[in-house]
Design a protein that fits this description.
The structure is a single chain. This protein is mostly helical. 64% of the residues lie in helices and 0% in strands. It folds into two domains: 46 residues, Arc Repressor Mutant, subunit A; 136 residues, Tetracycline Repressor, domain 2, CATH 1.10.357. Helix 1 packs across helix 6.
Amino acid sequence: MSPVPPVSPEPPSESARPYHHGDLRRAILGAALDVIAADGPAALSLRDLARRAGVSHAAPAHHFKDRTGLLTAIAAEGYALLAEALAAADGLRDAGVRYVRFAREHPAHFQVMFSPELLRGDDLELTTARTLAGERLRAAVAALPAEGRGADARLAGVAAWSLAHGFATLLLSHNLDGPVGDQDPDEVFRALTGMLFRPQQP
C-alpha cells in the first residue's frame, strides 16, 4: 500500500490574516497619503490600503474604524504639523512663508485638512490640533504693531490666512506655473506680501 501523501495546509484567507504589522497605523497613514497625493481623497479605500500593507482587509478598522476616521486622523496630523511649523515663525510674513512651505511639503494633508465634509468634526484630536494652529497664526498677527494690522485684529488674521492659503492652493493646483516658473515659491510669497502690505505713510 502506498503511503498517503501529507495534506498541505490551506493558506489562510485574507480575513484570517493577522493584522499585527509593526506600526500598522503609520503604514496605513503613509499609504493613504500616497493615494491622496496621486489621486485625491475620493480614491481612498480601506480595503486597498490593507492590501498595500499586506494585512487583512479588516485590519485598518482596528485603528481608524472607517474611512472618515482615517481622513480625520490625517487632518489632525496635518494641523499638528502646521502648528509646529508656525511655532518657529519670525513674524507674520515668515508665518505665511511657513504656511505655504507646509502646503508644498504636505500636499495630501493640506487637501484633507480643508475638506470638512470628509471629516469627523467633533474629533478631539482634530479640534485640538486645529485650535493650536489657529492660535499660532493669531499670535503672529497680534505681534504686529497696531498700525500694521488695523483696528480689527481678527480681520487682519483672516486677511493673512487668505493670502497664504490662496497662494498655496493656486500653487498646488499648478495655476501659478507661469507666473512663478522656476522661482523659489517662498521668495515669491515674500515679495508678494511686500507689494501688498507696505508700511503706511503718516
